[in-house]
Structure to design on (217 residues):
């Protein structure tokens, strides 16, 4: 899904909440301009079904859209209640955040916020898996890869540029955000394993790789 498709799916969801399913109503709500071809692409992917001027979700599309809207509204709560940003900034930042939330981060934010039921403008937030498990605290977190012990794993969240040559080298090796790495050993060299690759890294480089701890289970 592209960011544009996310925005269209979100607009269809919000339009449906208002009791409108026509293309014109969706277009008024949508934050991006879209064409007939954009709708055909979503239809071809089995995410929407169309009946004359009405646009409805398929079962697959409904699940996808629900997740998109949930992430956006969680981001709105985060931006307004934790970051304390003004309403004028909230929507813009929430839009940017929703596209980059990994499932683990989404659950952590939801737990941190106490599993909110509604967003700042009173719209409902669909419950996630973390809400069903009634998690009370965030038991995982972002940390430098250097803090993981042998046998522990983490999903790369971001890499501090540091030395740009090292940064681009890591990217060329395939160490991108979202990749899960396992620490093979810490001493005498820091060795990680990922996607059938084993790599020895200098400790200073390892310190600039930040991961989300992956629980053994």
């Amino acid at each position: 899904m592209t960011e544009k498709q996310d925005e269209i799916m979100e607009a269809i969801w919000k339009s449906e909440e208002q009791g409108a399913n026509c293309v014109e109503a969706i277009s008024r709500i949508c934050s991006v301009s879209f064409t007939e071809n954009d709708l055909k692409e979503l239809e071809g992917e089995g995410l929407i079904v169309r009946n004359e001027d009405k646009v409805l979700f398929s079962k697959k599309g409904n699940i996808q859209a629900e997740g998109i809207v949930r992430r956006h509204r969680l981001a709105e709560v985060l931006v307004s209640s934790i970051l304390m940003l003004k309403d004028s900034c909230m929507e813009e930042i929430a839009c940017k955040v929703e596209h980059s939330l990994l499932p683990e981060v989404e659950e952590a934010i939801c737990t941190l916020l106490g599993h909110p039921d509604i967003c700042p403008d009173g719209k409902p937030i669909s419950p996630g898996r973390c809400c069903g498990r009634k998690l009370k605290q965030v038991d995982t977190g972002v940390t430098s890869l250097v803090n993981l012990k042998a046998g522990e794993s983490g999903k790369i969240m971001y890499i501090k540029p540091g030395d740009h040559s090292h940064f681009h080298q890591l990217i060329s090796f395939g160490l991108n955000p979202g990749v899960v790495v396992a620490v093979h050993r810490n001493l005498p060299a820091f060795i990680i394993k990922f996607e059938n690759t084993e790599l020895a890294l200098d400790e200073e480089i390892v310190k600039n790789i930040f991961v989300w701890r992956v629980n053994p289970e």
Remarks:
- The chain has nine helices and eight strands.
